[in-house]
Amino acid sequence: MQSSGCLLILFFLPLLLISPFSSALSDAQAAFIARRQLLGLPENGILPENFEFQINLGFTFPNSRLRRAYIALQAWKKAIYSDPSNFTANWEGDDVCNYNGVYCAEALDDPKLTVVAGLDLNHADIAGFFPAELGLLTDLAFFHVNSNRFCGIIPKSLSSLTLLHEFDVSNNRLVGPFPSIVLEMPALKYLDLRFNNFEGELPRELFEKDLDALFLNDNRFTSTIPDNLGNSPVSVVVFANNQFSGCIPSSIGKMANTLNEIIFFNNTLGGCLPAEIGLLANATVVDLASNSFEGILPKTVNGLKHVESLDLGYNKLTGVVPESLCRLPSLKNFTFSNNYFNGEAQGCNPALRKDIVVDDGGNCLPDRPKQKLQNDCKSVVLKPVDCGKSKCGAAPPKPEPPKPKPLPPKPRPQPPRQPPPPPPPVHSPPPPVHSPPPPVFSPPPPVHSPPPPVHSPPPPPVHSPPPPVHSPPPPVFSPPPLVHSPPPPIHSPPPPVFSPPPPVRSPPPPIFSPPPPVFSPPPPVRSPPPPPPIFSPPPPVHSPPPPIFSPPPPVFSPPPPVRSPPPPPPVFSPPPPVLSPPPPIFSPPPPAFEDVVLPPNLGAEYSSPPPPIFQGY
Description:
Elements: H1 2-17, H2 27-40, H3 64-78, E1 80-82, E2 102-106, E3 114-120, E4 127-128, E5 142-144, E6 149-152, E7 166-168, E8 173-177, E9 190-192, E10 197-200, E11 213-215, E12 220-221, E13 236-238, E14 245-246, E15 261-263, E16 268-271, E17 285-287, E18 292-296, E19 309-311, E20 316-321, H4 323-326, E21 333-335, E22 340-344, E23 357-359, H5 374-381
Parallel strand pairs: 3-5, 4-6, 5-7, 6-8, 7-9, 8-10, 9-11, 10-12, 11-13, 13-15, 14-16, 15-17, 16-18, 17-19, 18-20, 19-21, 20-22, 21-23
Antiparallel strand pairs: 1-4, 2-3
C-alpha cells in the first residue's frame, strides 16, 4: 500500500505543482497536460456515434443541442488544471447560456431553437487541454481561446464544427503537425495558429480554402511554401518566424485583387524575387526581411502602387535601388538595409528624403555611411546571380526512391563431390551468433534536447494600419525566438525496432567456433561419418582441407552421444541453410511522454475580434 501511494504521488506531482495563480507552465507541466489529453482521447480522436446518449444527466434541457453543449463544456472544465481568474467558476448547472465566455443565439437552421453559437475565452490564462467532447458543439460560429495555456493537440473531433467561421487558438502551447481538421471546416474564414509549437509541412489544400485571414507566424513549420499560394483569396497572410525554405512561388501574382498584407519575415527563403510580386497593386504591407533572397530587384517592383511599408532588409540583394521604387505614391517606410546594393537613385537617399523613412545602411553604397567593408562586398557583387535561370516558384524535386541493393553474386557451381553422410541431429541450441546487428535506418527521436530559451518580449506591431480583418495585424518586427531544436514529435512513430532481420544464409557454426561470414555460401560439408550407436567417443577425424570461403575450425570436443537409429543414406547435396536466430537489436526505446519537453511560449498580447455580426447570430 505504501509503494502504491508513492506511485500515485509521483504520477500527480506535475499536477500538484501547477499553481492556481497565473504563471507560465514549465516544460514538465505542459508535457503532463499533453500526456493526459492523449490518454483520454477516443480511438482516432473521433467520438463514437450517439455518444451523448451514453451519458446520464440529472437535468432536462430545452433541446438536445443544449444538452450536447452541457456535456462538452463539463468535459472541458474537467480538462482545466489551472484557472487563476476563476473564469469558469460559474460553469455549473443546466443554464449553459449563462456560463462565462459562452454565447447563445437562435439556430441558423431553426430559429425556434436556442444553441451555443460562440465561445470566447481570450486572455483567461487557463491551463488545460481540448477534450474530444468539444466536437459536440456543432452550432459554433466562433472559437476564441487566444492567450491561454492550453497544451496538447487539436482533437480530430473538432472537424464536426461545420459552421465555424473564426478559429483562434493563438498564443498557447499547442503542438503537433499542421491541424488538418481545419481543412474540413467549410465555413472557416479566419484561421489564427500563431505563437504555438506546430511543426512540419503546410498542406496544399490550405491555399485552396476560402479564407480571409491566415496567421501562421511564430511556429516551427519547416517546408517550402506550396506553389498554389496564389490560389488563396486571403487579404492578410503571415509566414513570419518559422523555418520555411525555397522560393516565393510565382503564383503570388494571382493574389493581386485581394491581398493587403503579406509577411515572410525571418525564414530561410531564398532565390530571386519573382517578377509577379509587382502585380500586388493593392498590397499595403510587404515584408521580405531576414531571409536569403538574392539577385537584383525585378523591374516590376514599381507596380506596388499602394504599398505603405516595404522591408527588404537583411538579404543578399544586389544592383541598384531604382528611383521609381522610392517614389511610390503611398510609400511611408522603406527599408533595404544590410544587403549588397551598390547603387541607389537620388530619391532613395535618406538624407534627401524627409517625407518618408528610408534605411540604406549595411550595403555597398559609395559615399554613404555605415556600409559594408569592400572585401565583404566583392564576394557577392562580383558574382551576380542570373535571375533568368532561377527556379523560384517551382516545386522542389522529389527525391528518387532508393534503388534496391543488388543481390550478392551466386557462387559458381563446383563439381559434385560425394560428401559423407550428414551428422546426426543435435538437439542442443546453436551457439550465439555474434554478428553485428543490422543497421537501423530511422533516426532516433530527439527526446533530450533542451527547449529553446525565449526571453524576448512580444514583437511590436506592424507600422501600418491593420487590414480589413477582424483581428489586428500580427506582431512581426521583433527578433525571432531562438529556436535551437524542434519540440519532440508526439505523433511520430518509433523507430522500426521490431522488423525481422535479414535471414542469415550460413549453416550453423560448429560448437565452440566462430560463425562463418553471414552472406557466404555454405561450404560443402566434410564432417566425419556418424559414429555407431554406442556410448563411446569416435576416433579422431582427419578431414581434408575446406574450400576457400571459410576455414573450418578444429573440433575440440567429441560429438554428443547419439541415441537415434542409423542415419539415412548419403545425400549428394549440401545441407539446406539454417535460419539462425536474429541478432539482438540495441536500438533506443521510443520516446516516453515523461521525457517530452516543450519550449516556453511567452507569446504576445493581442485581442481577437468581437463575435461576428451576421444574419442568424
